[in-house]
What we know:
- The protein is of the alpha/beta class and 172 residues long.
- The protein has helices spanning 8-11, 32-41, 64-74, 90-96, 109-126, 144-152, 163-170; strands at residues 20-25, 47-53, 81-86, 101-106, 129-134.
- Strands 3-2-1-4-5 form a 5-stranded parallel β-sheet, with helices on both faces.
- Helix 2 (32-41) links the parallel strand 1 (20-25) and strand 2.
- Helix 3 packs antiparallel against helix 7.
Amino acid sequence: MNSEQYGANSILNSPYSIRRALFPGSFDPFTIGHQSLVSRGLALADEIVIAIGINEQKQGFFPAEARAEAIHILYKDEPRVKVCTYNSLTVDFAHAVGADFILRGIRSVIDFEYEKNIADVNRSIAGIETVFLLAEPEYAHISSSVVRELLHFGKDVQMFIPPVIHEFLISK
């Protein structure tokens, strides 16, 4: 796999002006809740950059490059969705890829409090807005951490992640 295909430089090579959203997260793994947010976010933006944050202090359940490749496969037929990894401040990466706003999902009041504080800081230090989409009720209970816990104990998680992601990740 060519790691450049997931880099910021390939994202900026667009021949026309578009409205671009950055959808950052660990996506470890990418769930059907994430997939729902991307689908709904495409009504707000011409392009969504799914950006997998790399934190050297945390060991992911799946390697970041595997997550990026799996998500790329999921969206291979959707040219308006790009996938990349990054290891900088999210706002710096948002500027690097020319994002007009950051897209985030909210499942609960707890998520809102946490995300609101980050959005306020991002607006203060970088002038970038965050757009929140509420999770659809049928997905509000799904989180990557719950899916990881289920996987750790050998439980079937097919109902929580897109089939392409499930097939790709269990083959790794």
